[in-house]
Design goal:
By secondary structure, the protein is of the alpha+beta class. It folds into 2 domains: about 70 residues, Arc Repressor Mutant, subunit A, CATH 1.10.10; about 160 residues, Chorismate lyase-like (Chorismate lyase, 3-Layer(aba) Sandwich). Helices cover about 30% and strands about 35% of the residues. A hairpin with a 4-residue loop joins strand 8 and strand 9. The N terminus is likely disordered. Pfam families: GntR (PF00392), UTRA (PF07702). Keywords: DNA-binding, Transcription, Transcription regulation. This is GntR family transcriptional regulator.
């Protein structure tokens, strides 16, 4: 059993290396299961295990009756300091960005929102539900909360372009800092319907608190990213402190 696990992991890595090197380019059909069995001198079960993992992780896509193909590259987003909006980050990767508004509503603040904002119980808070897409494929489902007293009357136009830009230009609020907490979760049926994925797909879950230059908390969001369509880059800068780590 251990030997089989090691073998399919090796095969997975070999195929992934060919994808990342460009030998198996985007949209290219990879060798058949039979051909891979001959190449690696192993069983079809071992090959399928490797291919299934690569498919689940978003590197391959299977087309019934046609074969297995290299999937489109994942949307890369930067989590370190950046002034680039989602649409800018997607455009530079050659993809078409879109933000689709699901709903805007005003809800009474509950105890959970009181933990995020300095609001009183039942104070009005705007709830903005959106899906972000790249090349018409959903990559992110997001629910944002902004107190009515902070920026009353967030519109559809604001929500479908950039909330942060709207806060700056329409309400004079500059987002100076965000704090993000990242976890891994599995898509349920509701999330799967928004992200157009099967329940059980691994997703990144990020909670974000945005603050203005005075330290006031102005936005709280919960975002879910398809794990097979998204990856993140984190860049760290370190001051010169000799040999200290």
């Amino acid at each position: 059993m251990e030997k089989k696990r090691s073998l399919h992991a090796f095969i997975k890595e070999e195929i992934l290396n060919k994808i990342k090197s460009g030998e198996y380019g985007t949209g290219k059909k990879i060798p058949t299961e039979h051909e891979l069995c001959q190449t690696f001198n192993t069983s079809r079960t071992t090959i399928r295990t490797a291919l299934n993992q690569l498919t689940l992780e978003g590197y391959l896509t299977r087309q019934q009756g046609s074969g297995t193909f290299v999937a489109d590259k994942k949307v890369r987003q930067t989590l370190s300091n950046t002034v680039h909006r989602y649409s800018d980050q997607v455009k530079v990767q050659g993809k078409k960005p879109e933000i689709a508004l699901i709903s805007i509503s005003v809800v009474p603040a509950d105890e959970a929102l009181q933990q995020a904002f300095p609001v009183a119980l039942n104070d009005p808070v705007q709830r903005i539900e959106r899906v972000r897409k790249a090349n018409d494929e959903p990559t992110q489902y997001e629910i944002s909360f902004i107190p009515w007293s902070t920026a009353p009357g967030i519109s559809q136009q604001h929500a479908e372009t950039s909330l942060y830009r709207a806060l700056n230009e329409e309400y004079g609020i500059h987002i100076a800092k965000t704090t993000e907490h990242i976890e891994i979760t599995l898509a349920d049926e509701g999330l799967g319907s928004h992200l157009q994925c099967e329940p059980g797909l691994p997703c990144f879950y990020i909670e974000t608190i945005a603050e203005d230059g005075y330290g006031n908390k102005v936005e709280y969001s919960r975002s879910y990213f398809r794990g097979d369509k998204t990856n993140f880059m984190i860049e760290r800068n370190y001051p010169n402190q000799g040999d200290d780590e």
